[in-house]
Amino acid sequence: MNSKWMTELWRAGGLLLTVLIVGWFFGHTLLFLLLGAIVYLAWHVFNLVRLERWLRYGEKSDPPASTGLWGDVFNEIYRLEMRSRKQQRKLARTLNRFEEAAAALPDGIVVLSTNGIIEWFNTAARDMLGLRSPQDIGQRVANLLRHPDFIELLSSGGPTGTIELPSPVNGEIMLTAQIVPYGREQHLLVTRDITRVRHLEQVRRDFVANVSHELRTPLTVLNGYLETLNESREECPKSWVRSLQLMRQQAKRMQRLVNDLLMLSRLELDNKTHHQTLIEVPGMLAAIVQEARALSGERKHRIHLEATPGLQLYGNHDELRSAFSNLVYNAVQYTPAGGEIHVRWFSDDRGLHLQVEDTGEGIAPQHIPRLTERFYRVDSARSRESGGTGLGLAIVKHVLSRHGAHLRIQSELGKGSIFTCDFPEQAVTRAPGATGA
Ligand code: ADP
User: Domain residues for 399?
Assistant: First the structure.
């Protein structure tokens, strides 16, 4: 038992003994015992009242002076109070540090509570989104930022990627916005100024488009003259014939490069395609397969077309033709003579699929994720030799993304590859009377 309790026991014992002796002396033991109990109780009540008043009004003052058990209670409460205040100060300091750090971030941060209510935002968010403090605290963010893409992002309620939107303060400033869920139904809206990045991309795109455009005319002229020279090669000195042939080859390759670069520029220029045209894909594929057979020539690939009759697709005719023919020509290019190529066009419950399967050289797994990068080739020399530009799959990827589709690549080294374009179901339509695959 602790010493304060002992003191209290002694004190109560002493009082009891005193009232017993005095009561016995006056012959009223019980009465004095009662009086003693009342005094003892009154002393405790008095201390309880002091404790209550100190807790209620004393806030930062020292505890009331008292001895024994009550003194201990006062001191213990005072000690706990001091410790809790110290922790509060420490917490407030930490919180301040975090708030200062978040406020100094170059990215805009908006803390949103349930229903997208703004709880806090930093300086960058204020500047980028035109938020005002304290007026906008407690407002719904959807009432202040009304861009349709942002409303859609907000209603999706999860980490659904990043959108781009112009700043409501200045339309020249381009922002990315991302919603990051955290805690309980809380979200962080993170915005970033990408004006400079977009500007640099635009400069690069314009540069590539301009260079390609400028090169097109001289190349057409060169090719024209080279063709004329080729037609009258009998009249040329013998030593020129080989050089002439190489010049024609390289000039054609340059023209293909320029055409592919221009195609990519066009695809990048307008990132939304209008899917108004209903494309008769089986017919388009039949023409591509015909051309692929011509390309195969002496190599005599066995090219099979299995297309669901009447299965059509809303999309851009030229873009899709370019993408599909790139895949089929690649199969011809990278499959040894006599190999087999299957071109399939079918639908299932996941959508619509264009598949090109070959029994060619295949691709090692480490190359597959990078194949759609511009100028990425597994074997550069081989690709150049076969007339490849290294841009084919980049074009395919762009065209597909503009049609809401994806490219899937499966391949095994030495066995062959399967390139599949997966189109979403909403793009599917069927000619009247046509039957499914
Ligand atoms: P390229 O003009 O070089 O063919 P692409 O972008 O069309 O450029 O293809 C990129 C690379 O992917 C090619 O260089 C080749 O290495 C590889 N590739 C594409 N299709 C196939 C295929 N069917 N089989 C094997 N490799 C392929």
Answer: 276-428
User: Of 225, 243, 269, which residue sits at a domain end?
Assistant: 269
Candidate from 330, 358, 385 with most ligand 1 atoms within 8 A of CB, to mutate: 330
| Helix, strand, or coil (residue 171) | coil
Please tell me the distance from the alpha carbon of residue 305 to that of residue 292, in angstroms, as a whole number. Answer: 11
Structure tokens at 218: 């001289």
Specify whether the CB–CB gap between 122 and 102 falls below 8 A.
yes
pLDDT digits (tens, 9 = 90+) for 20-44: 999 999 988 899 999 999 998 998 8
From the list 317, 251, 239, the residue with the least C-alpha distance to 278 is 317
**Does 122 map to a domain?**
yes
Identify the H or E element spanning 319: helix 317-333
Q: Which residues pair with 120 in a beta bridge?
A: 111
Asked if 132 and 94 sit in the same domain, the reply is no
Distance 247 CA to ligand 1 centre (A): 24
Residue 160's H or E segment, with its range, is none
Question: Helices (H), strands (E): how many in the chain?
Answer: 12, 13
89-110 pLDDT per residue, tens: 999 999 999 888 888 899 999 9
Angle, alpha carbons 348-160-313 (nearest 5°) = 30
**Percentage of the chain modeled with pLDDT above 90:** 59
Same structural domain, 158 and 215: no
- Please indicate whether residue 388, judged by its CB atom, sits closer than 6 Å to ligand 1: yes
β partners of residue 192: 176
Nearest residue to 53 via CA among 64, 44, 40, 37? 64
Cα separation, 59 vs 204, whole angstroms: 67
**Minimum CA distance residue for ligand 1 atom 23:** 331
Helices (H), 232-316: 238-269, 281-296
Report the atom number in ligand 1 closest to the C-alpha of 383: 3
pTM for the predicted model, two decimal places: 0.68
Q: How many domains, in total, are found in the chain?
A: 4
Which residues, 6+ apart, have CB-to-CB distance to 393 below 8 Å? 326, 330, 371, 372, 376, 407
Task: Report if residue 128 sits inside a domain.
Answer: yes
Decide: 378 in ligand 1 pocket, CB within 6 A: yes
Q: Tell me how far the alpha carbon of residue 406 lies from the centroid of ligand 1, in angstroms.
A: 17
Distance of CA 163 to the CA centre of its chain: 9
